[in-house]
Amino acid sequence: MFFFVLLAGFPFGWRAGILVGLLTPLISYGISGMPLPQALPRIITEATFYGIAAGILRGHFKFSILTSTIGAIAIGHLAALAELTLIPGGSHSVILAWQTAKQGWPGIALQLTLLPLIILLLEKLWPRYQNEKC
To answer: Whole-model pTM?
Structure first.
């Protein structure tokens, strides 16, 4: 889910990142019932911050794709952790956040390897595609 949020935020900016970050978890929940209702607010927060960070780090600050990806992942996880610590019973929430981050390492590894390649390819092909459409 976060892969597509980052994929929208990098080339299309933070506004697209927000939109995809907000809608992707809701559409996923509507179609499959996942993520679970109790995790939905955290996932929406995390996905939205992924999209905002991807768009701003890459578009405004002109960071490299890898640096922007790492930054967006870190900011998304920190936003989710901040939300969880505001919920009553925060110590359990912090443990849950750590367990979730440990389980998410394969996805993070894929994001760090595949996203930069896809974005570089899109940035190379996009101007040619736009010129052909004119």
So the answer is: 0.84
